[in-house]
Write a structure and sequence with these properties.
Elements: H1 2-20, E1 29-35, E2 45-54, E3 58-64, H2 69-99
Antiparallel strand pairs: 1-2, 2-3
Length: about 100
């Protein structure tokens, strides 16, 4: 029993450390929007929007430049990974709580 507790505590510590090294995070989704051609231009223009919920149910939208698209998508992936890691930490804490 003590050995199992030690392993769980060690895994919780490892997961907590990994949370601190994940880097920037953003919550939301990125959508591509196709706009019409400029007055003197030819063809369509593309734009990207980050949409997220703020303070309950208020939806916010931010423009994302094409140059920062990869960065934003990486930050969204970091957020998803952090959520999964936090869920695992909670699961382990419940197991640990039941052992006491």
């Amino acid at each position: 029993m003590q050995e199992e507790k030690r392993k769980i505590k060690s895994e919780i510590a490892d997961l907590s450390r990994s949370l601190s090294t994940m880097g920037g995070m953003l919550k939301g989704t990125v959508s591509k929007v196709v706009l019409g051609a400029k007055k003197r231009g030819v063809g369509n223009r593309e734009s990207y929007l980050l949409t997220y919920k703020e303070k309950g149910n208020k939806t916010r939208t931010l423009y994302v430049s094409k140059q920062r698209l990869v960065e934003v998508e990486g930050m969204i992936a970091n957020y998803q990974e952090a959520k999964q890691t936090l869920e695992r930490i909670i699961e382990l804490n419940v197991r640990l709580f039941k052992m006491k």
